[in-house]
Amino acid sequence: MNKTHAVLFALMMLTVSLAGCFGSDDPVEDETPVETLDDWQVHFASTAADLPTCDSATDGRLYYVDADSEFQVCTSSGWDVIDVSGPAGQS
Question: 56 and 76 in contact (C-beta within 8 Å)?
Fold first, then answer.
């Protein structure tokens, strides 16, 4: 009887270790919301001269100016360049 229990116990331990290997191939859905560029409302201008008039209709809009490789935002005082380079790193 002890030999039968030992074999059953060993078989049970073997099947438990393989239990995670079998299952469906359904991917687990990630519940983290994906942020798209549409949420950012970033606009494009080829040059600074192509920026629209900065007034109450465009207040707060962010534009990427391709010719200068910079971002500009419309504020109450006009177009301001946003520095996204950050501080200089160590040499």
Answer: no
